[in-house]
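cache lookup: miss for this entity combination. No prior model stored, computing from scratch. Input as submitted by user K.M.:
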Amino acid sequence: MATSLAKTLLTRAAFRRYHQASSLLRPTVVASSSPSLNLRRWFASYPPHEVVGMPSLSPTMESGTISAWNVEEGASFSAGDVLCSVETDKATVDFEAQDDGVVAKIIVAAGGGEIPCGTPIMVTVDNAGDAGAFKDFTPEASAPAAAPAAPEPQAATPAPTPVSATTPAVATQPAPSSGDRVIASPRAHTLAKEKGYGEISALRIVGTGPGGRIIAQDVLDYDPSTAPAIAEIAVAQPAAAAAAPAKAAAAPTPIPQPVAGAGYTDYSLPQSAIELASRLHSSKKNVPHYYLTIDLSLDSLLELRSNLNSTMKDGGITVNDLLLKAAAAAMKTVPSANASWMDSFVRVYDSVDINVVVGNGSTLYAPVIRDVGSRGLKAVSDDFAAATSALEENEETPTAAGFGDVGTFTMVNVGMFGVKSCAPIIREPQACALALGVIENRIVPNDDVNSEETYKESVMMTATLSCDHRVVDGAVGAQWLSAFKNHVENPMTLLFFFHFILGSLQIFIYNFFTPIWIRFTPTKD
Amino acid sequence: MSSDSATFDLTGSFETYNLESSPSDTITMSKSELLSHFELMYTMRRMEITCDNEYKARNIRGFCHLYDGQEAVATGINAAFDPEDSWITSYRCHCTALARGGSVSSVLGELFGNVGGQTKGKGGSMHFYNKAHNFFGGQGIVGAQVPVGLGLAFANHYNATPGKPMQVAIACYGDGAANQGQIWESANMASLWKLPMIFCIENNHYGMGTSMDRHSSHSDYYKMGNHIPGLRVDGMNILAVKEGMRFVKDYVGGGNGPMYVEMMTYRYHGHSMSDPGTTYRNREEIALTRSTRDPLEFVKRTLIEANFADAEEIKEIEKRIRKEVADEVKVAKASSPPTIEPHLFEYVYTSGGGKEQNEFPPHIRMPDFAKSKFY
């Protein structure tokens, strides 16, 4: 008796397991009567049920949050009843039932965070008696609605497919995978077939039609003898990492001439320009910039410069050299600005290496002047002069020492163009960048008590400091800029910093305000 | 257990306008016929619910206008008509496509965009078409189907055999479309030339989201034809619809000119799948209609009261149909989307090439392409 019952249950369970699909519409089992719940659980199979996924309640809905459930487990509902309220990005929409049924299990609770469309949220059954069997139900697989969507984007990711160097260069490798659509006109397709080129997607033609479409002319211009070369290069580079470092290591190829089009001209970019562009982009994206501006009065500085140049033989001290020293002096005063953000810690550098941005007409370079802080003014001046002269000599990429290196601080001067101020982009991994504007005569209030005039003329310049807020907070940046102004307007203080001992005295006085990350150094236990 | 046919009372289901006669107050229907109607209506209902679920699962994209609640109209018209009568309707056409030569797998395949669909996956929800069964769509523009339906009526009139009743043409449109200008124009032509045209307004009381009182100054749509006779039918009652359409077909096919038919019906879903359907009407109203006027419930009750079937049998039929629909959905999903070769360019030109190669009968005067060559 028991064995025959067990046999019947076995076949029924197997039958039910066949029908157990985690799809939204499931077939109905013909056998409706069932034994007690306990026996069903023995065989770990569930009665006929539907796993309901998060519905897409508007055509643009990608994910939603269940804000409230209107039904409980075990409750029955009829067509038109609201099952739950779903918060979409646009509005809170009610999810209605289309059929009568009973809630067997609620998988996602209300307020459970944003879940993508298709993720199972509840299980419904037809018979109220079946509802109790789902206490331990877990959705086995993710909803099939998500599955067809998921393989498509994965297939469509452009294939830097790791191709081993030993595979022969086949013209179809690495063709865009089946998910990619090659945009070409029907005539181009036909032409490609006629000419025996085969599938147009394998040809890697760059389209010149609207929107980059491959048009008939492109297929006619296509020379199959050049194709294997492209495929070979693609194969030879095992694209484990980005192809950029490999390309940079290769010999620089001559830049092609600009291509004129209808109403535009395309200029090819050398690799250095592309790298610079991407560096700037990532800088602006990753670093939280903020900007501080201050006006500097250069009267005393210019006086010091003319004095120095007249007393020193082969003088050649420029305003720029003095400003470099002033910046280094400010760094000594506020050493926490001479630092780098290293994700989990901050690195403060001992010496001040300044990248000075110079240009030779069409390109910008930023040679590094090493250890501006402890070296003499003359040494700094000579370094800078050497860098600029190297620039004038070499029209192509200057390979002088220090041209590609990264320092700890950047200075850029845009004053030659008459620009009053500039907010520079910080060069990662530095923490600050200083931009200097045009040196011009401005009218300022006269602080001479004895004079009759209420105004006077002064040679002024606007300086803007960009700071990385992760390393240098507002107070520290302002301190730095104020120290810089102090050194520029009282240039005699620059002379103090030739001596290390006096320098440390200055550090003691100025460092009342420390950056937050220094304040939080852990105590030694 | 059940007698073969029964007579049902239809008093109160009709209102006439400008008509001396009216549909009969009773209808006799056999058990097999009523069961077949029930099965078709239930298939339509399950199919529309499936469309809803599949749309929410993002397997169907784009436009999707559902017909559940209005099944009796399509089934009744189909029951009263011959297969040679022409039928054209609006974008709410899934169930009409099913009734006229379609199957659940071809309808859903079309919605999924697969080649197995009724229009090869190239039409979608609003562009079903089945010439062999005289179903002419499936139209996206509101009210555009009526002048085309008039043309079908004209063709039927033209091709009529003397002595036999004409085949009729019916254009179904909604209450929201009823005030479109071209419909008035069509009505004039139909009445003038006494064409076998039926203007069928499926009045579900809402034009998208605007209720009838707010979008139409004259809401007795069956009287809209002025001198054209009209008939108002309870569109939730399959028997009334069938009897009403039988009457209309006899009248119109007999060469008496067009007729306006207003079907009082209701849709449970919103206008389309992007409309929740509850911002301009109460849930109570929908629930009330579901509980008191649902066409499927009516048929079930009728079957039981006439002793054609008992509740168990009906449940069995329902289960079977649910399974069939689910299987057909699987078949529809298994088909694949159309490909560039060969599907994309099929049915763009007539077979044999472009317009130069078409042969026209001599009485069709085509332009002289050699002279007017600017294309």
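stored under new cache key. The two ends of chain A are 76 Å apart (CA to CA).
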